[in-house]
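Aim 2, interim progress: modelling of the zinc ion-bound target.
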Amino acid sequence: MLILGIESSCDETAVSVCRMSDTQREVLSDCIRSQVEIHKLYGGVVPEIASRAHAEAICGLCTQALTQAGAELSDVDAIGVTATPGLVGALLVGVNFAKGLAYAAGKPLVAVNHIRGHIAAAYLAYPELKPPFFALVASGAHTSLVRVRDYTDHETVGRTRDDAVGEAFDKVARVMGIPYPGGAAMDALAKEGDPAAIRFPSAAIAGDNLDFSFSGLKTSVINYLNTCTQKGINPPQADVAACFTAAVCGGVTKKLALAYERYGFDRLVLAGGVAANSHLRAALTEFCDKRNIGFYLPPLHLCGDNGAMIAAQAYYEYCAGNLAGYDLNARATGK
Ligand code: KG4
Ligand code: ZN
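Predicted structure of the complex, ligand included:
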């Protein structure tokens, strides 16, 4: 089947065509227009500007994705679109575009959950991968521990109770004078610092749960930076980045260890833009090696927001009979 996948939940407009079947998972085109340069001016994503930029880009990207795939709209078997979660105005652009396209071309419409989409990126990178497995979704907007029982049967067993992990990276970076999105620069800076120089609270919430808090950690780092400024001291930027990153990685690994005790998974998928973090990748590689867990880490272009992951998940939703009607609406939060 040829699936057209449309993504517009945050600050990337993306359209992809994938060929999917029981035995085939092929990305034929994966076109992305990032808005990072626009939002950089404001130090974060401005929802109204994001919606307008999606509206400008989506038609052209769709044409480009079809052309690159060597396909016509009439060749497409189903249209998948991210309907939740995300910025509602941004989601609405993709949802309404997909509805118009599906109506005009007489094609089935499939609503895709963005977090399921991030996980589905692993199917494209690893053709042999099939549920059940365990997934950590770590991005600018989400941090969840998910039991993937089947392609369309997911149970979120842990989540952040406040900020997402990428959001915390970006906000700490901003206070350190690093432009948005600062995650990648923090990654590089942390390599030069001492991860034991300053004690910051763990990102793991105390107790017998699988939840995280990145807001407390972020505030503690920002307080430390402000105290340095008040004392007229230049904060040790590399040490701050290294210690913040260590608190993130330590917290994530702690909750994964608890999840492993509880559920005993033998495969772990890392998904989302923060999967690019070299320290997190190293910590999770070690975690998995120690326990003989297979570690699935899709290439970086499939970890950030993209249309191919939406097309991949749309295929499995379609196979499960989960079709959307023309009354499909975008929801900021939800399943
Ligand atoms: O998945 P993604 O493209 O968008 C969302 O769905 O949110 O993730 C973007 C996030 C940003 O917060 C960015 O700073 C973060 O991923 N990020 C990183 C790194 N590369 C990107 N965070 C830490 N280390 C990195 N190397
Ligand atoms: Zn995302």
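Residues 237-263 form the longest helix (27 residues). The mean pLDDT is 97.
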